[in-house]
Design the sequence.
């Protein structure tokens, strides 16, 4: 007996169809395990006809990269065989949760800005960073980088107030979630100044 689906490394978000091949006329039952939750293999269907497939719909929130499947087969002479998937696969239908930790609100910056964030997810993958000056229109800072929780942003020749950074995370299953600063900060490039003439002189006003 061979399990064709799922296989090691597969990723599922909405359930899947068990697919197996047998060489003996049998009745069969399909079982599934979440070892990350300390569970044993749990029966999905018992004593079903050996049709080679069984659709399984995911009805609960699951986030694991250690899922395994098992087929238990019993033939007409009551002989029993057990086959497990050779490796683990991913089941993940949980949205990543993202919190932007830095920069701090109401801070002022003149050079590079360190952006840090925390992604709560069992299978993190990539993030996209963007900023906004008005809370509505976002400009991309960097796209699809590894979710390391840290990025050094050099805005360059730029100035702005009430700047808020958004971090959008995508996990290995394609689920997405984002976090955004509630209160903005200010930035002034050292190359950007406001030139105001006063009594025939030109002065630089940083603010």
Sequence:
């Amino acid at each position: 007996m061979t399990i064709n689906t799922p296989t090691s490394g597969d990723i599922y978000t909405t359930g899947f169809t068990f697919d197996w091949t047998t060489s003996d006329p049998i009745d069969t039952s399909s079982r599934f395990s979440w070892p990350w939750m300390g569970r044993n293999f749990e029966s999905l269907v018992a004593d079903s006809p050996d049709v080679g497939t069984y659709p399984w719909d995911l009805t609960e929130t699951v986030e694991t990269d250690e899922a395994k499947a098992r087929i238990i087969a019993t033939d007409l002479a009551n002989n029993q065989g057990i086959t497990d998937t050779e490796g683990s696969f991913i089941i993940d239908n949980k949205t990543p949760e993202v919190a932007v930790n830095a920069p701090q609100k109401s801070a002022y910056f003149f050079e590079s800005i360190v952006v840090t964030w925390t992604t709560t997810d069992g299978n993190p993958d990539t993030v996209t960073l963007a900023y906004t000056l008005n809370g509505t229109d976002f400009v991309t800072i960097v796209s699809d980088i590894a979710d390391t929780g840290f990025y050094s942003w050099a805005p360059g020749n730029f100035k702005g107030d009430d700047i808020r950074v958004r971090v959008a995370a995508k996990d290995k299953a394609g689920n997405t979630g984002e976090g955004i600063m509630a209160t903005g900060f200010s930035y002034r490039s050292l190359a950007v100044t406001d030139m105001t003439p006063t009594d025939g002189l030109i002065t630089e006003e940083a603010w």
